[in-house]
Structures are given as structure tokens and as C-alpha cells.
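Whiteboard transcription, Tuesday session. T.W. wrote the C-alpha cells on the left side:
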């Protein structure tokens, strides 16, 4: 370790004690990547703070030493957003797992960033409430990570993303100051800027979340189709009819195969796709909408429809979808979890193009997605022991994102940009757009020490005059800084 980092590690031990600082090379390897394993870097130092004051003190020490730092929650991210710096400090918030306050009359709770997403619901369910954002990893992902990535989940179609359920955040700014950002504060919506900023403008240490009342009735249906195009047609018909389900999820034949191998979800044999539709709300409203959804699925060619009779059957229907990402490991040694968005009306065309891409390249693609809002999660499969296989998979993955942009969509819906998609940002935004975004970041973090190298394809020098660049960027050839 360089002398500068050795000195910093000693200062951090004074703050946290020896048990809160990791410098052993073997233990550091635990933190070399997040849920996206294609990108890896072993951090120089890992710290495990217990409270907000310790996080602020750590940041101040890093700033004083000129050392970059990255925040990490449970490490379930899928864009490399928590990828550490080999020359920096990784601030892991997993010990900050207290639910500080539950206010049922006010329909809110205050939690630390390391609290597991599903634990919020478990804590308030006896009172008839729950925390609506539900990523597939909700049993292990942390609320702080949800805030950083503005996570969604299966039910974001009706209930929105994390941003719609965060009322306030206590934040450690990039210079080590503790501040409160609130949705109710006058002036600019700084909370709106912070949620989804991928940890590039500060670290949250306390989150006030909105609680949602448990609906009166929930009905869940699984429809099986011969093809994924037929399932996409059903989705368009349901939304076009004015029905807004709590969730509409779809899986293709390959992802169904993986789920069956992993969790035995017992979906209809021979299905080219399955559609999971969940409706919730007042009983009479749900009954009317449910009949309409069933009819539309039949009209689109569903050859089998199952309706959950109780919570046990509902859990079984969701089991395959919730485990889909991990389950693909049963049918492929390695895979890329992609995340893009298209208008839902373009589902049949885009899915057909993905099939064609797969056939032309010889790279298998399993499709799992939030069909209701057009958020695709294609899983690009490859054998990492085969020379050139990863590069071919990356090429197909990029071509899928190009498809999303071509159809008026986005390169990410909920997984974030991180390091994995930063090179695609120029395909979606102009240089002026990117300059404007980076000027906002520079306003928070002029030293470029807070999760540097993420989101943007080329780092911006704070203080640089915006405009069309001529000649090399000021940081070109200085990759060691990022």
C-alpha cells in the first residue's frame, strides 16, 4: 500500500477501530465487484461505519488525503455502480441496519441505508402497510442502494420507482458535511437530483420512506402463450384498454427453462412466453378489471390461464419471475444482465429483432421484463471459458441498447449506468446534454472524489468552460485519476 493510503488507513482506524477497517488483501477481494461481475477492482481500503457521524468523518479524511471513495450497500447492483477504486476507499453501509422510526399515522418510516428492502415491509405489515418498491433482489438489497439507483421492481408500473416513495434523506456531502434533503423544502428539488444519482453526489445515511396501505384485494393471473410476440400483443391490449395493473411481467421460453431448473415453478409446459398480471385495489374494481384482462389474454392467443386462489399459489406464480436472474446460472456459465426501455407498443417488433440478433450471432438471449412499462431485462448468455465469447455477448448487449434508443427508449430503466453503460451515454445524449449533467455533478463534488468514473463516458474537469471540445480532453491519458 502506498504511504498516503497507509496513513489514511491509520486515521480511519482511529475513527472506527481496527474491526471497522479492512486492508488485508484476501478480505478485500470480497468487495471487488457488485452484482455485475464483468467489472472488478480490489479496493485499497474497506471501511464499515456504524453511523452517520462516522461516514461523515471518513469522507472528510478521504477529502483531506485526496483519495477517492465509493459507497456500497448490499452489493446487488447490476451496472457496476459500486465498483471500488483500486486506489481508494470503499464505504460499506451494511452495518447501518436500524429502522429508526415507524410512524403509521403519518404513513412513513425512517431507516438507515443498510436496512434490507423487504425488512421495511416485514416491520409494518402487521399494521396493514408495506414499502412499495420491490426489486427482484428485495430480500437482500438495501434501501440505500435503492435510493442510489432509483430502483423499481415488478410493481413500479402502478406504484412508481423509489423516488416516488422517498420523502427525505440525510446525506453526507462530498466535503463531509451532514445535510437534510427534503421533498417539502422550498427552492430547487435537491432530493430529486440526489435519488438516482448513483452515489456520485453524496452518501445517504438516513432515509424517510413513504409507506403504502395494503390493498383490499389482490388477484394474480398467469397466461401462457405460444410465442413471446403473442405475449407482447396481450400487454399492449391490456394497457390500451385503460387497465393499469399493479404489475405485468413477462418471461420467454429460455428464462422459463432456467426458472424451472432452479426453483421448479411449474409454469405451463411448452410455453413460448408467460405473462404474469397482478391487479390490486377495491374488490369490485379488481373483479371488473380482472375479467377484462383474462378476455384480452385469451384474444391474444393464451393457451392456458391460471388464477391464484390464495397467497400460496400467488407466491408460486411469482417464484419463477423473482428468481429469474439468478436462475439463468443453471443454463449458462456466465451472462450479462441488460436493462433497457422501449415504448410498450414497440414490444412485438423489438422482441422479434432481439430474436433475430440472437440467431445471427449465435448468442442466446433470455428475455425477462417489466412488460407494462417496456422495461426490458434481456439476459445475454455466454461461456466465459470460450475465447471471444464475452466480446460477442457484449456486442449483442450493445446492439439491444441501440434497439431501445432507435425505438425512442432508454439505455436503462432501473439498474443505472454505473461503469457498464457509460460508453452508451453518447448514443442517447448530445455533448451539450452531457456537459450540463456533469456541471451539476461538479457543483456537488468539485474535487471529483465521490464515486468517480461512473455514469459519464468522459470525466469533466470542474471549472472547464462548456462547449464543443477541440483537441484532447484535459484528462485524456490520465486514466490513473479515474
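and on the right, the sequence the group agreed on:
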Amino acid at each position: 500500500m502506498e504511504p498516503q493510503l497507509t496513513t489514511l488507513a491509520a486515521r480511519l482506524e482511529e475513527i472506527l477501530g481496527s474491526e471497522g477497517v479492512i486492508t488485508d488483501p484476501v478480505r478485500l477481494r470480497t468487495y471487488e465487484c457488485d452484482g455485475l461481475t464483468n467489472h472488478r477492482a480490489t479496493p485499497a481500503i474497506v471501511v464499515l461505519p456504524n453511523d452517520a457521524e462516522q461516514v461523515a468523518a471518513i469522507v472528510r479524511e478521504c477529502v483531506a488525503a485526496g483519495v477517492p471513495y465509493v459507497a456500497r450497500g448490499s452489493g446487488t447492483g447490476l451496472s457496476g455502480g459500486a465498483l471500488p477504486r483500486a486506489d481508494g476507499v470503499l464505504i460499506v453501509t451494511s452495518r447501518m441496519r436500524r429502522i429508526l422510526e415507524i410512524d403509521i399515522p403519518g404513513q412513513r418510516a425512517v431507516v438507515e441505508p443498510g436496512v434490507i428492502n423487504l425488512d421495511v415491509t416485514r416491520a409494518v405489515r402487521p399494521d396493514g402497510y408495506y414499502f412499495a418498491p420491490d426489486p427482484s433482489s428485495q430480500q437482500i438489497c438495501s434501501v440505500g442502494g435503492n435510493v442510489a439507483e432509483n430502483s423499481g421492481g415488478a410493481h413500479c408500473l402502478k406504484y412508481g420507482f423509489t423516488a416516488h416513495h422517498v420523502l427525505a434523506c440525510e446525506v453526507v456531502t462530498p466535503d463531509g458535511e451532514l445535510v437534510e434533503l427534503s421533498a417539502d423544502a422550498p427552492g430547487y428539488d435537491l432530493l430529486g437530483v440526489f435519488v438516482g444519482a448513483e452515489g456520485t453526489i453524496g452518501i445517504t445515511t438516513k432515509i424517510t420512506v413513504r409507506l403504502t396501505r395494503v390493498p383490499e384485494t389482490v388477484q394474480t393471473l398467469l397466461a401462457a402463450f405460444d410465442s413471446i410476440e403473442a405475449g407482447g400483443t396481450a400487454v399492449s391490449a391490456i394497457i390500451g384498454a385503460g387497465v393499469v395493473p399493479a404489475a405485468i411481467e413477462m418471461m420467454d421460453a429460455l428464462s422459463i427453462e432456467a426458472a424451472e431448473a432452479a426453483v421448479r415453478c411449474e409454469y405451463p409446459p411448452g410455453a413460448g412466453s408467460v405473462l404474469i398480471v397482478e391487479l390490486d385495489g377495491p374488490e369490485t374494481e379488481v373483479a371488473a378489471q380482472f375479467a377484462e384482462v383474462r378476455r384480452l389474454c385469451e384474444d391474444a392467443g393464451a393457451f392456458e390461464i391460471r388464477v391464484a386462489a390464495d397467497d400460496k399459489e400467488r407466491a408460486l406464480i411469482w417464484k419463477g419471475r423473482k428468481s429469474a436472474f439468478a436462475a439463468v446460472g443453471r443454463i449458462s456459465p456466465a451472462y450479462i444482465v441488460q436493462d433497457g426501455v422501449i415504448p410498450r407498443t414497440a414490444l412485438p417488433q423489438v422482441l422479434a429483432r432481439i430474436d433475430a440478433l440472437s440467431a445471427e450471432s449465435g448468442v442466446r438471449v433470455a428475455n425477462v421484463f417489466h412488460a407494462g412499462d417496456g422495461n426490458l431485462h434481456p439476459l445475454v448468455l455466454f461461456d466465459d471459458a470460450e475465447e471471444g465469447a464475452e466480446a460477442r455477448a457484449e456486442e449483442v448487449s450493445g446492439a439491444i441498447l441501440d434497439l431501445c434508443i432507435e425505438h425512442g427508449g432508454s439505455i436503462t430503466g432501473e439498474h443505472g449506468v454505473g461503469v457498464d453503460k457509460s460508453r452508451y451515454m453518447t448514443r442517447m445524449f448530445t455533448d451539450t446534454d452531457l456537459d450540463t449533467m456533469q456541471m451539476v455533478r461538479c457543483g456537488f463534488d468539485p474535487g471529483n472524489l465521490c464515486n468517480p468514473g461512473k455514469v459519464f463516458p468522459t470525466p469533466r474537469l470542474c471549472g472547464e468552460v462548456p462547449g464543443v471540445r477541440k483537441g484532447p480532453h484535459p484528462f485524456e491519458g490520465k486514466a490513473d485519476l479515474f
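Someone added at the bottom: The first strand starts at residue 21 and ends at 22.
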